[in-house]
Design goal:
Layout lengths: L2 E7 L5 H14 L4 E5 L11 E4 L6 H8 L3 H13 L2 H11 L3 E5 L12 H11 L3 E9 L6 H18 L3 E6 L14 H5 L8 H7 L6 H17 L4 E3 L5 H15 L13 H6 L10 H8 L1 H28 L10 E5 L6 E5 L4
Helix pairs in contact: 2-3, 3-5, 6-9
């Protein structure tokens, strides 16, 4: 049973960067992963693309042939994909049991009220895919109450529209300490606690709108979000291994992922950590980790990484001296995940 993530988010939220980082991290823990580009406007991906919608249709062709603008062209391209699902299904068959990341376009219409994207993934579910929506938002939205509430509403609408297991993520969280101080702790925003506490800050942000009807509108929006009670956020720094490990575990729980066909044959330090519940950070740690004591945590993790690198080098040297290197095991090929510092060994496929 193959698994996958649908990576959604507004332009600039970091979707392609996330797909690149997650693919590298999965390679480091021995999980076979492929990325599919579903954005017809993305002509330069920074990850190896297993399947590209631009091989089927490009935004430039649609805009030229049908006289459409960029937004209309992307909607048309997804409708074209919906009507040519055999192309996508045949491409997925070649990937076998690989864990798949779908890098989706940034037009919010696609996952708020347009049906093509939802219909495409409904078809994939019928093929046996276990899918999770990963909805990315730039953490800069926390700096302004109006931006934050807008992102909460967008996330809520996407959850209702896509009707799939859904994880909302605040990206670039390692940048939050460089912005203006937040009026509340970070966990207030990630847990989407009572939004009525934001009303004074919202009025202060736009004094011209501090009138009775706008105040009532803001309160109505806050009440609606609270009544649904669906939205919450995880945080992510894509270059931080612990942050990626935590998010991947949350996603695995949502999808019901079981270590199996997409997993490598050896247990690396990160694979062991992925299975260790005690490594899951508390929600209360977020404020301390990313705002209050960020520099101290960064330095601590850097030293731990250096110690682990030394230990891995010593173990590799000892194994080589003992003649027990991975290269001496029949049918096993050693691989190094680029830039990860983690040795991954995966069995060769049977022919």
């Amino acid at each position: 049973m193959p698994f996958g993530q649908l990576v959604l988010g507004s332009p600039g939220a970091g979707k392609s960067t996330y797909c690149d980082g997650m693919q590298q991290f999965m390679g480091a823990i021995g999980r076979q992963c492929s990325v599919i580009n579903l954005d017809p406007a993305n002509d330069h991906t920074n990850y190896p693309c297993a399947l590209d919608i631009r091989d089927l249709v490009t935004l430039e062709e649609i805009m030229a042939d049908d006289k459409l603008g960029p937004n209309g062209g992307i909607l048309y391209a997804l409708e074209e994909l919906e009507n040519n699902m055999e192309w996508l299904e045949n491409g997925l068959k070649e990937l076998g049991e690989d864990y798949v990341l779908f890098d989706c376009p940034g037009q919010v219409e696609l996952y708020t009220h347009h049906n093509s994207l939802r219909n495409i993934f409904y078809r994939l579910q019928k093929l046996g895919y276990r899918l999770v929506v990963v909805h990315l938002s730039d953490c800069f939205c926390l700096t302004q109450p109006s931006l934050y509430i807008s992102n909460v509403l967008l996330s809520l609408r996407a959850m209702l529209q896509m009707d799939l297991p859904h994880i909302n993520v605040l990206t670039k969280i390692d940048k939050i300490s460089s912005y203006d101080p937040l009026p509340f702790n970070l966990d207030y925003y990630t847990e989407v606690q009572d939004l009525r506490y934001l009303m004074p800050s919202l009025d202060a942000e736009s004094p011209a709108l501090k009138k009775g009807k706008f105040t009532k509108l803001n309160e109505a929006v806050a009440n609606m979000v609270e009544q649904f009670g669906l939205v919450s956020f995880e945080v992510l720094a894509v270059e931080n291994k612990r942050s990626m490990m935590h998010l991947l575990r949350v996603i695995d729980r949502a999808s019901g992922y079981v270590f199996g066909g997409a997993e490598g044959t050896n247990d690396t330090v990160w694979q062991v950590a992925m299975r260790n519940e005690s490594s899951l950070p508390d929600a209360l740690d977020i404020q301390e980790r990313w705002i209050d004591n960020k520099e101290e945590y960064d330095e601590m993790e850097r030293k731990e990484e250096e110690e682990q690198e030394k230990l891995r080098a010593e173990q590799a040297r000892a194994a080589e001296e003992a003649g027990l290197g991975a290269g001496s095991i029949p049918g096993v090929v050693p691989q190094i995940a680029a830039g990860s510092g983690i040795r991954v060994t995966r069995k060769q496929p049977k022919t």
